[in-house]
Amino acid sequence: MRKWPISLIAIAIFAMAIAGISALKQEPLYHTQSYVFGTLVDISIYGEPEERAKQLANQVLQDFQNLHNQLHAWKPASSNQPSELGTLNTAFANGNKPINISPQLATMLIDATDLSVKSQGLFNPAIGHLVSSWGFQRDEFTAVNIDDTKIQALVKANPRMTDIVVKDNTAYSTNPNVKLDLGGYAKGYALDKAAEYLRNQQVKNALVNIGGNIIALGQHGNQPWRVGIQHPRKPAAIAALDLADGWAVGTSGDYQRYFTLNGKRYCHIIDPNSGYPVQHTQSVTVLIPPQKNAGVLSDVASKPIFITVAEDKARTAAMLGIQYFMVIDQKSNIVVSNALAHKLEWLDPEVKKNSHVKLVTLP
Amino acid sequence: MLSLLRSPKPTFKHMLIGDWLTIIFSVMLTAYLFQTLWSHEHASKVQIRIGDKVYAAYDLNQQRDIKVHGAIGDAVIHISQGKVRFSKSPCHNQYCVHQGWLTRSGQAAICLPNQISLELIGEQKPYDSLNY
Lengths: 363, 132
Prior knowledge:
The complex is a heterodimer of chains A (363) and B (132).
Chain A: H1 3-25, E1 29-36, E2 39-46, H2 50-71, H3 84-93, E3 99-100, H4 103-118, H5 128-133, H6 148-156, E4 164-167, E5 170-173, H7 186-200, E6 205-210, E7 213-217, E8 225-230, E9 237-243, E10 248-253, E11 258-261, E12 264-267, E13 281-288, H8 294-300, H9 302-307, H10 310-319, E14 324-329, E15 334-337, H11 338-341, E16 345-346, H12 349-353, E17 357-360
Parallel strand pairs in A: 15-17
Antiparallel strand pairs in A: 1-2, 2-6, 3-5, 4-5, 6-7, 7-10, 8-9, 9-16, 10-13, 11-12, 13-14, 14-15
Helix pairs in contact in A: 2-7, 7-8
Chain B: H1 2-5, H2 17-37, E1 45-50, E2 53-59, E3 63-69, E4 74-80, E5 83-88, H3 95-98, E6 108-111, E7 116-121, E8 129-131
Antiparallel strand pairs in B: 1-2, 1-7, 3-4, 4-5, 6-7
């Protein structure tokens, strides 16, 4: 039978064609993951030679680590030296004598204060004492005994960002109860820094993700970068969206850091007005159009929307200039701003099937 | 026709309609199987990362426990016929274990304290990064 070899040749050619196509599909994408800021950092760089992409990603990670050491709210930079933020917090507690701070920290404090004022104090990095009394200033936290009296006292002490006076790279606080915890700011700041660094290095296409705050540069080949939004109660994405050049997205959830006590979930997002963890919301996602501090906004803007009650969420978003947002409440009901709804592709089968998605237009 | 099919000295030039049909049919069948079996909904592998390194990728079509050593201790990852989960972890809050089964491509479970991540990989990645 001479026929078989011919068919075999045809099949071999076909197989080679498949192999050829898949070899062509090998794209110039470098991807790495690491753990910084107590969370997962994920960096993709497209269109650079692998060696260079690797070097750039390592530099970005190194910068993150340095920033993390500088801003750590409870871990010293080394065994006998507190972090820069730790030193500042000690000075705040000990009176109102100005101490020297780095220009970088001074810039951050001024910016964070602006945002705090803009959010009417709902974004408040000055409540470090509350955060630590709820036990969240630990790598591995446990359920705490809730001390209502103490919490009320800490709320009454009214620590605000406007208590901090920053001048000529010095800072002091007029209120000794101010304790900075930049947990809701530093990751966003780091994103902006990373984007700036990569752009200066002529990188056209990259995607940087620090624990759920993501910024995009350029795109993934001939398509935009695509980002999945985590379902707050399932190990899967609830939706996906394209993240165009310069856009950033951030999610705050009650599922990343929390403990349960008597069947109740206590998450790390604390309402500065009550002093208690927010319990009415599972997650808030904000999408930020390109601007100088897109990363910072992707981190900061979700918190005030998370903290306010359902009726006020759209108003709070508008107050912060946020057009694109999604809220998932404790009953897993979804509220999406019209602007964001146009950009989302639902992935969750339940949401697709019986969409309990409510659209809102900003006031 | 039948005699032609049994032609004693066939060459490439003399391939008959039946040969071509067979080839076209196999190509179409392959393409069809490719589409259905390799569809991105069904993950085929789990990629395990420890710290910043890819530790290994395992086929999902098996039943096995994998013990891996993370930043704070040993975790056990359980693979069972197309799905995977953290079954044991030394971390305090056990979020990773409570995440449960991962079944679809693109799904991920992360244990931050132990710095281990699982990601299901199919033919296509549904997204480049997850906004967790």
